[in-house]
Amino acid sequence: MEKPIDPTKSSPRQKEAAQRDANKYFLTSEHKTALAKQQTAAASSANDAKTARLRALRLAKEAADEAAGIADANNTPKRPAKKRPE
Fold it and tell me: Cβ(72)–Cβ(65) under 8 Å?
């Protein structure tokens, strides 16, 4: 009759294999997390650059419009809508 396997008594090879597997999983997980953070940072910096470029274009256009004497459509007061007779 075979003796039952005691999980608390494992061979050094089994412990080393378990340690390697755990380290491999941890390193893979850590690598994926770092890659995701890097991609997020790249997307964020690209968005910041685009925002800065568009802001500069808007300010240049506003300055050109002001120099030309064109009133900004956003600053002109709007007339209230006429009510329809009921």
Answer: yes
> Along the 86 residues of the chain, how does pLDDT read in single tens digits?
556 555 566 788 888 888 888 888 888 989 999 999 999 999 999 999 999 999 999 999 989 988 887 655 556 666 777 777 76
With beta carbons less than 8 A apart as the criterion, state whether 72 and 62 touch: yes
Give the pTM: 0.48
* Residue extents of the structural domains in the chain: 13-70
3-state secondary structure 4-58: CCCCCCCCHHHHHHHHHHHHHHHHHHHHHHHHHHHHHHHHHHHHHHHHHHHHHHH
Length of the chain: 86
Three-class DSSP category at 59 = helix
